[in-house]
From TrEMBL:
It comes from Stygiobacter electus. GO terms for biological process: L-methionine salvage from methylthioadenosine. This is Translation initiation factor eIF-2B. Signal peptide: none annotated. It holds the Pfam family IF-2B.
Amino acid sequence: MNNKISKLFDDKTSGSFEILYELHNHLKEQISFLKIFPNFVENVADKFPSFENIQKYLSELKLSIKKNNIDKFFKKYDKYFQNINDTLFLHSQNELKKFDTFLTISNSKTLFELFIRLKITNPKLKVIICESRPKFEGRIFAQKLSKNKINVEIITESMIYFKTKEIDAGIIGADSILKNGNVVNKVGSALIALSCKNFNKPFFVVADKSKFKKTNRFIQKEMPPDEIWRHNNTKIKNFYFEEIPKNLITKIISD
């Protein structure tokens, strides 16, 4: 189990939903281990401070171990993963089916599942994806969509303003949604939101309820500078996440 979990700890290109899904599948195979070493759950939680859905999941798992109903917990989440993407699509399709071209960023399993379903109802669907520096997870997302016959185009983040003129709507997932309505997501998301506001294009956030926080707390963690550039004599800043003000968001679509 440690090798599988370690890979998730080091995963800097997948979205929080995909990591949670993989984490769930690993942990449910290790019920005996979790009962013997319940503190392991806290150690895992420390590795994902920015992902609200993972924090909630692990907090609930810890409580289920304490109450000795861990089997019920995993069955509940098996059902959740089976149904959540269909639910999000049902709640979003009336809003999104009128648009053909979307601009997004990063690598979101939530958006992947949404685009797959939208493609069935709209063969003209096109997704423009920022390459998403410094780890280029946008390229990974583009490959996934291309394999599923969805028309995609990769751009750099510096092209966001220019490309917003060509799109119908901006859309992102979320790593967390704060109590005040602001959204935390991949750096570059706020630039898409601002550009959509400037060109009077709608900007949507799609996220299930596990992403909603009860506080406004967001701590921006600085990441290794050499992911951007190996240069000893230059000050380099590297952040993965940022806060998008609610006044830039047209609608948050949830379950």
